[in-house]
Give the backbone structure.
Amino acid sequence: MSATVAPGLRAHCLNVWEVLAQSIAMLGPTMTPVLIVPLMYASAGNASWLAYAFGSLMLLAVALNIREFASRSSSSGSIYTFAERAFGVRGSLLCGWSLLWAYALVGVAGITGFAVFSNALLGAAGVHTGSYVPLACCLLVAFALGYRDIRLSTITLLLLEAGSVSLIVVLMALVLARHGTLFDADQLSLRGATLPGIGLGAVVAIFSLVGFESATSLGEEARDPLRTIPTAVIASVLVAGAFFVVCAYAEVLGARGLATPLDKLGTPLDALADSVRAPALKLAIDAGALLSSFSITLAALNAGARIVFAMGRDGLFAPSLARSHARFQTPHVALAVFSLACLVVGIGMLAAGLSPIDAFNDTATLGSFGFVAIYAFVALGAPLYLRRRGELRPRHVAVAAGTLALLIIPAVGSVYPVPPAPSLYFPYVFAAYMALGALLLWRRGRGPQVPLGAPR
């Protein structure tokens, strides 16, 4: 295995669609209508569509702050490097540490989700392999694609998510056609919805949308990155947000005539497919959810490995992690270490007795704490960065302040009302992880530094 010290990633090989695919895949849009909309309905009821619209607005505000960085500089370090430009290396280390938490747990959610849907599909065929085999296979194939070629990885992501989302769009169209009208008085009048319920629903919506920023990790590999990456970041929020609003509206409308309420449906899309007499869609959508779980895993490995790569280059981790493959020009050492960490956590959760679906839910929720912290770093850092460049304007301060105010909603909603165990302990687990990061990395934040605002 031949390697060379970075920089050495494959430069300018990804077009805007391939960069967009990274962010869309990280969102895992298929997982929201398949697994999360019933949870949204339990909180927001007939206002579920509005909660998704509000959540999309919150993350659009975050995306506008990210654009201030991404339109001026690019690197493989994602938001970690953006924070470095605002706070310096030592000031950005906690942002990088938080990114590793978020991307690793999204990766674990991907492989455990893959186990959920592979068990369902294989079980229907009378084949039972357990959860460890599909989990390991998912991670191994994702690692192989990420190791071999970033362009092959992103094209794969684009095809998988496009196919999966298209099937769901067909089902939603059939549901709306069955009702003969788009008008639903209960939803449009927010019948029975409460302000606290909508607020809690907005938290769920945020958790559906986190990860949209992962396109920024491809700064060295994107063509015309100062244009391509901001476009992908903004577009991913708009596209995913619109998709989630439509899915929530259609699922609530379609489930109204079912015997089981939406928030009690374990497989809502299967029930809706039966209601519109399209049972063939059930298998196709379940297969699409399986492939979407794989794409989440691959997107998380792509992004997480590049954070490890950048932090190794800055002297926060071992220099060997800042190596790129001589032939494939991928961060293969960082990718291997990051993949191994995801595998250990995933297997460890299953060995501790958690079911794959519980492991999926727990890791997705835990990872969201990291994303909220990351977005706060961005909102705090954007005005500082622009002031250093002499480009700060009142509108930048207003957007940053508004973003921080909006981020208070998911931060508070995650801890109040007090959730049941084990979610009750998740904020403290994340706080302990961040404290450990500060302890381990603070003294190492003296590695080679790049002048603020300089291209990497």
